[in-house]
Amino acid sequence: MEKVLEKSKKNINGKVFLKINSAFIHLGKAEKRVATFIKNYPEEVIKLPINVLAEKVGVSVSTIIRLCRRIEINGYTDLKIDITRDLALNYKETYSEINSNDSIPLLLNKVQQSFLQTISNTFKILSISANKVQQLFSQTISNTFKILSISVLKEAYLNIINSNSVLIIGAGGTAALAKLFNHKLLKLEINSQWSNDFSLIPLLINKIGKNDVLFVLSHSGSTNLVYDAVVMAKKKGCKIIILTNYLQSPMAKKSDIILATGIDEQPLGSEGVTTRMAQISIIEVLCLLIELKKQEIL
Asked: What radius of gyration do the chain's Cα atoms show?
């Protein structure tokens, strides 16, 4: 329980957090425990049913409902919606150098520099001699941003925003990235789901149509199970976006929009860290563009 009562180290400015800060000194002891948990772990709260949150914090369900009323929120469902919005609004703060006057090319350059600086800082604090590894990571990011097409990026994020729903799929190591991307899209209020269960995926694809998007994560672009899902989605008429390293792969040829990474072959193949870094960098760019577009900055 001590973890719950820790002082918040998060710097999130939004409606819920400002209301909690304003009301905090007037809350009861149990309500403060809930409020502190929300401030410390907002991303966990939006995933929890009210009874699970109550059990985690060690309070009653009625305490959580009472806290909602104290901060002028109608109920727990509205609380989670407002937290999701607050988290999304803070997404842009990750890249504080970006402003409303930036063109997309300038924006991409700033995001790239942010990634490269993070890599440099990380190796600096590790206090180890790993220049070749650092150079490999940095080169992968540089190569990926070098081949990013502005028109393709724009087409991708606009299709995601304007779709009825987005289904994200990936196999093996890309499954974790599919889950990550889904979480980010949900925070941006995009109707999204993900799966790596290829017995379930055909059932999910059967429910989508021409106003939906299938987002495919596949380094090789040739994994059989994923390819079969792409073929099925193509027949359903939905828009297919693929994030891959190979523009001429079987899946890329079936896709409508191809987002390419710039990864040289490596000993660990598609499971190497550089593969994940390049994929994450494009996911970050997409989410940032979606957020800026939703705020009518782009």
From this structure: 21
65, 75 Cβ separation under 8 angstroms: yes
As beta bridge partners, residue 214 has: 167, 240
Domain positions in the chain: 15-89, 101-294
Percent of the chain with pLDDT over 90: 50
Query: What pLDDT score was predicted for residue 266?
Result: 58
Report yes or no on whether pTM surpasses 0.85: no
pLDDT of residue 120 exceeding 90: no
The mean pLDDT value for 181-188 works out to 92
Band of the pLDDT at 90, cuts 50, 70, 90?
low
> Higher-confidence residue: 13 or 284?
284
* C-alpha dihedral (167, 168, 171, 175), degrees to nearest 10: -130
Could you give the CA distance from residue 262 to residue 216 in angstroms, rounded to a whole number? 17
189/195 Cα distance (integer angstroms): 18
Which two three-digit tokens encode residue 233?
A: 């989605």
- Is 15-89 assigned to CATH 3.10.20.30? no
Is the pLDDT score of 289 beyond 50?
A: yes
Topology given in CATH for the domain delimited by 101-294: Rossmann fold (3.40.50)
